[in-house]
Amino acid sequence: MQVRYKGMPVAATLLLVSLTACAPALPRAPTQPPIATLPPKERLVSAIEANGCLLTASNVGAILLRANLTQEQLLAIAPELAAEGRAEVAADGAIRVLTDNCI
Q1: Which domain, by its residues, includes 39?
Q2: Is residue 12 situated within a structural domain?
């Protein structure tokens, strides 16, 4: 006698349950565009926002890595952001972005 669960053999039901548990989850729609698709200036602002709104000597490496930028690009972009009123550059070289998220 074969044991059945709702018309299916128990072994087949267990196999089906185990296979669905191993199935990869469907990807979710992103809530924000990936940072890599943004222009360099926007990638920098986004990376600085994600690191507490301030770029300093201690976190510059992490921010440049997250923004996928070089130091040369940072040196070109920072004055542009300051000229646009989107950032403040302190005397020690720290950069604070001025955005809705960073006041």
Answers
A1: 35-97
A2: no
Phi–psi pair at 95, nearest 5 degrees? -120, 125
Compute CA distances 68 → 2, 8, 54, 64, whole Å: 60, 53, 17, 6
CATH number (domain holding residue 84): 1.10.10
Give 31's strand partners.
none
- Strand segments (E) across 29-68: 54-55
HSE-up of 61 (CA within 13 Å, CB side)? 1
For residues 101 and 53, is the Cβ–Cβ distance under 8 A?
A: yes
The DSSP letter of residue 59 is: T
Give me the percent of the chain exceeding a pLDDT of 90. Answer: 58
| Tens digit of each residue's pLDDT (9 = 90 or more) over 23-54 | 455 455 455 555 568 999 999 999 999 999 99
**How many domains does the chain fold into?**
1
**pTM greater than 0.90:** no
